[in-house]
Structure formats: structure tokens, C-alpha cells
Amino acid sequence: MSLAPRAVLVHRTTEYEELLARHGTHGQAAFFLSSRGRDIDEVAGRHRLARQALTDVAAAVPLRWRSARVERADLDRFLFAPEDVVIVVGQDGLVANAAKYLAGQPVVGIDTEPGRNPGVLVRHRPADAAKLLPHAAAGAAGAAHHPRPAPIPDDGQRLRALNEIYVGAAGHQTARYRIGCGAGPGTPGSSETQASSGVVVGTGAGATGWLGSLRRQSGGDGPPPPEPDEGRLLWFVREAWPSPATGTSLVRGELTRDQRLWLTVESDRLVAFGDGMEADALGLGWGQSVRVGVADVALRLVG
Predict the structure, then answer these.
(1) First CA to last CA across the chain, in angstroms?
(2) How far apart are the C-alpha atoms of 27 and 22, rounded to whole Å?
């Protein structure tokens, strides 16, 4: 007898809830915001929209299904199961936050604030959940597969993201490393010792975010941004510093499915993290190497 699907509702604490946790009461939070030229009614209104969307989606879960909820801050401690249907209720970025912990489960993105969010990954309204969830559990024919970047250090650890991977110093200060394209250190291909504020490797899903900003700052030169479902990555070095010992010739490029970007650490400690989740980072020590390429598992986004 197979298990009934489990609906996992992913959400995040609203700004209003954070204000109440910090200031204790609605009145104190209102006073704090007014002193900074903001109105709490706008913040409270957005909170009500988010909570109502979560309530509506929860009510749309079929009665025979199991269900669970997980807040963004707890994603790294939540155990997703193969039979889960993941419903992200919030912003586009929340889909990226959840995706790094998934292994092929279908994802339904619910937009809590249409018109405020771009709606690239959260494409549906709460009222759509009732028809989308059975479709997702049945295999989600036609679901878009969004490739993900994955850094793999030489100690066997692995990390996946949806939008981008950052490799550099934890505080975004100067990172020192050797960078190259190919199978890894010691293999044929160009390489260079660099000092920079880090390296970003991103997908088409992240092409309108951090990756897009880096591409614009580079003058738009180089390969065009990948489509969200394209198995191609772009990478950029941030603020590479020229010196007698460090170069700036390898500062951007692209990676197809069979290509890898590798870095060998020449600093005390660097980190690799995905989609802004700095608290869930891989630590990289002096002399350690990391390879970044297209992950073997993609995000299955329904609709």
C-alpha cells in the first residue's frame, strides 16, 4: 500500500511578524515605523494577504493527503520525502530557497502579492491550488525542469542551488584562489591565480537577479543569459584585482552540462553557498578545490 502524497507548505515569516517579535505590540511597531516615515497599515495589509493565501492553500489540500508546514529558516532541518508535493507560498526567492533541499519533487509556486512579485517562479494564485495539487501528485506532465548549479568540494560534500552559487570569503572581502575551466587542477585548460570579492555561477532562473546585475556591470559582453530551463550556466568574477601575482583575464564565461569551473583555495577560509542562504554554507580550507557545474537533479516547477 503506497503512502498518500504529503503536501508541504513552504512559507516565510512576514515583516509584520518580525516587527511584533522585535517590538512586542502592534502599537510599538507602529510607532517605530512612523518614526522612519512608514505606515504599519501597509505592512499589516501585506501580512494579511500572505496569511490568507496560506490558509486558502491549506484548505485546498485533498482530505486524504498528509500535510506539513515549514518556515524558510527551518528548511535546512526539514526532511523532504520522495512523495512530497511542495507548495511554496510567497515570493520567487522562496522557491529558490526551497529548491536547494529538493531531489525532483514537484513544486507549485503560489504568489501572495501579484503585481509586487515578478512571478517568474510563483506563477499561480491561491485559488489555483485545488486543481494543481492532484496534477502535481499525478506526475505533473509538462512541468518545467530548471537546471541548478552545484559546487562539489574535493572532500565529497555537495550543495545545490536554483539561482546562483557564490564562492568567496564569508564576509565578501578579498578571496584568493586559483580558477580554471576543465575537469580540475592539473588538467589541460587555462587557469589563473586571482584576488577578488568572489565568484558567482548562475542559471537562467537567476538571470534577472544577481547574475543579471553582474552581466550588466560587465557591459553585457559575452554569452547571452540562459533560459530558465536551459542546461547552461554563466559565471562572473566580482572585482578581480590585478597585481604582479594575480590576474584578471578569466573573469566571465559559460558552462555547458559537461563543463566545470574549478577553484583551488589560496586563503585561510572560503565558503560556498547558494541563493543567499549564507547560514547553510560549505567551508573550504587552504589548498582545497571545488568544482561547480550543472547539477544532476533539476527543479520540477508545475505550471
Answers:
(1) 29
(2) 12
Q: 247-283 burial, b if ≥16 CB within 10 A, otherwise e?
A: beebbbbbbeeebbbbbbbbbeebbbbbbebeeebbe
* Dihedral Cα 187, 188, 192, 197, nearest 10 deg: -60
The pTM (predicted TM-score) of the whole model is: 0.80
How distant is the alpha carbon of residue 150 from its chain centre?
11
Contact 283, 265 (CB under 8 A): no
Residue 101: alpha-carbon gap to chain centroid:
10
Longest pairwise C-alpha distance within the chain = 67
DSSP 200: E
Closest among 220, 192, 225, 187 to 206, alpha carbons compared: 225
Please say whether the dihedral angle defined by the alpha carbons of residues 240, 243, 248 and 250, taken in this order, is positive or negative: negative
203 vs 226: CA distance, rounded Å: 7
Are 232 and 255 in contact by the 8 Å Cβ rule? The answer is yes
Cβ contact 225:234 at 8 Å: yes
Q: What is the mean pLDDT of the chain?
A: 89
Asked if pLDDT for residue 171 goes beyond 90, the answer is no
Cα distance between residue 270 and residue 153, in whole Å: 11
pLDDT greater at residue 222 or residue 233: 233
User: In three state form, how does the secondary structure of 117-181 look?
Assistant: ECCCCCCECHHHHHHHHHHHHCCCCCCEEECCEEEEECCCCCCCCCCEEEEECCCCCCEEEEEEE
Q: 10 Å Cβ neighbour count for 196?
A: 21
C-alpha cell at 3: 503512502
Q: List the beta bridge partners of residue 192.
A: 179
